[in-house]
């Protein structure tokens, strides 16, 4: 019995080390790892649309805006949970989600709007990861077309139904960040060593459509906090989350700025027709290793985006508090099917990011949190009794409400308005050019073998007159 006890203790320690995470460090790894997945490969494409200066400025700008709205979401979560716990509500077997926070603080209409935007964004976020898997593996093995690879990776990603919750992403988040770090610095160093291609041109920005499409892709890059509430709920002390997203964004900028700048410097306008940065870098062992790492990371990010959808579906069919993981996994499988289907219909790696960013991310992670924070604390009583007060150096409530108003106006006009217009034009152009269910999006045309020369024997004879 003593040896059994020691084995059990060892198993518990290993499980806690690799599996059960709830610290502030785990949350930081989750945020940083989830923020840059396949979008790391599309940022050089955005730079070719925006130009170098605008690309850098938009990254810094939307990084700040995204950190602020993540802070707002954390404040609203703590407020909601504190109120519920005062009412003796137990969340032991229940994962709090964003739409429930909106419901508890502002009512069912806010809940319905938040649920619709959040679920649609997470659905297409999962679709994008699946498209990225097929796009990346093609650069290692082009014996199969990208659509066939989508079928294969759709089946692989379906195994995420067995991951119980965000408590269980500790080792995956850590490894995921190492993978994106390697890939970012590979892109940077490989581009510098490659040097500029002959006759390189850096003509961006040239068209408003391209400019706002690129800007909206960067808005999407720093709008990856649709899973913020779930990450917070997995923490042992959610109150510590307030500045975690900001620190994660600072680290992410050390990856995205050098890599996007270096690739754009090396290849310039060629990126306008190559939305995946891997397409232009020469094949090598280092590139293949980066591709493999990104494939694994996209599997992790697929799980990140899909897990909140699994929770919503479980709650809808009454399976969320079921103790059997096998039953919950079986119940989750229908969620994967529409993701699989949409990835096959719209395999437009790159342009789909901008479309999702303008139409969904703009509301899900920028406009709705800013408005929700303002409406939740609009009364003096709510502000006096708030669990968390806004930072003093930003002007307390007046400063917070001013920033919220700016975000709502800016993102609605620039992100949703101009960005939506540009992204939809670009998206429709992809459909017109490649068609739906395209077999191999942006693949090089097959090399046609030239036919053997036709011999005409009678032409070789000299006819006398």
From TrEMBL:
Q: Which InterPro entries match?
A: AA_transpt_TM (IPR013057)
| Keywords for the protein's UniProt record, in alphabetical order | Amino-acid transport, Membrane, Transmembrane, Transmembrane helix, Transport
**Transmembrane intervals:** 56-78, 115-137, 149-167, 174-197, 209-232, 244-267, 289-313, 333-350, 356-376, 397-421
| Single GO biological process annotation from the record | amino acid transport
Per the record, the domain of life is: Eukaryota
Q: Which Pfam families match?
A: Aa_trans (PF01490)
User: What are the GO cellular component annotations?
Assistant: membrane
User: Where does it localize?
Assistant: Membrane
Give yes or no: UniProt keyword Transmembrane helix.
Answer: yes
Q: Where is the Amino acid transporter transmembrane domain?
A: 20-413
What's the protein here called?
Answer: Amino acid transporter transmembrane domain-containing protein
Q: Which organism is it from?
A: Arabis nemorensis
């Amino acid at each position: 019995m003593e040896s059994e006890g020691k084995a059990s203790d060892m198993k518990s320690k290993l499980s806690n080390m690799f599996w059960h995470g709830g610290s502030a460090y785990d949350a930081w790894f989750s945020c940083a790892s989830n923020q840059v997945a396949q979008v790391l490969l599309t940022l050089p494409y955005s730079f070719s649309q925006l130009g170098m200066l605008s690309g850098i400025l938009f990254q810094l700008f939307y990084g700040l805006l995204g950190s602020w709205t993540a802070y707002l979401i954390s404040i609203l979560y703590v407020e909601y949970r504190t109120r519920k716990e005062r009412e003796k509500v137990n969340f032991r077997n229940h994962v709090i989600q964003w739409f429930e926070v909106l419901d508890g603080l502002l009512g069912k209409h806010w809940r319905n709007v938040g649920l619709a935007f959040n679920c649609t964004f997470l659905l297409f976020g999962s679709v994008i990861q699946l498209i990225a898997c097929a796009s990346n593996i093609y650069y290692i093995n082009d014996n199969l077309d990208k659509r066939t690879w989508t079928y294969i990776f759709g089946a692989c990603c379906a195994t995420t139904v067995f991951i119980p919750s965000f408590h269980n992403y500790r080792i995956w988040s850590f490894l995921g960040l190492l993978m994106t770090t390697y890939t970012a610095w590979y892109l940077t160093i490989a581009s510098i060593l490659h040097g500029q291609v002959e006759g390189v041109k850096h003509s961006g920005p040239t068209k408003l459509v391209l400019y706002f499409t690129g800007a909206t892709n960067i808005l999407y890059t720093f709008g990856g906090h649709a899973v913020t509430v779930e990450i917070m709920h997995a923490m042992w002390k959610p109150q510590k989350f307030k500045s975690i997203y900001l620190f994660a964004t600072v680290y992410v900028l050390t990856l995205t700025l050098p890599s996007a700048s270096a690739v754009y410097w090396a290849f310039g306008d060629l990126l306008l027709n190559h939305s995946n940065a891997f397409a232009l870098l020469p094949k090598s062992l280092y590139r293949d290793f980066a591709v493999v790492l990104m494939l694994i990371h996209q599997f992790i990010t697929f799980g990140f985006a899909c897990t909140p959808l699994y929770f919503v579906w479980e709650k809808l069919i009454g399976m969320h508090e079921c103790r059997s993981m096998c039953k919950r996994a079986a119940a989750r499988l229908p969620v994967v099917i529409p993701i699989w289907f949409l990835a096959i219909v719209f395999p437009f790696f790159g342009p789909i990011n901008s479309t999702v960013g303008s139409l969904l991310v703009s509301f899900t992670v920028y406009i709705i949190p800013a408005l929700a924070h303002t409406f939740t604390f609009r009364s003096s009583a709510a502000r006096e009794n708030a669990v968390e007060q806004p930072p003093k150096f930003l002007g307390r409530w007046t400063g917070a409400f001013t920033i919220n108003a700016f975000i709502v106006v800016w993102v609605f006009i620039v992100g949703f308005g101009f960005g939506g217009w540009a992204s939809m034009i670009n998206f429709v152009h992809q459909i017109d050019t490649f068609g739906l269910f395209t077999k191999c999006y942006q693949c090089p045309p097959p090399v046609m073998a030239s036919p053997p020369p036709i011999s005409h024997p009678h032409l070789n004879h000299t006819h006398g007159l």
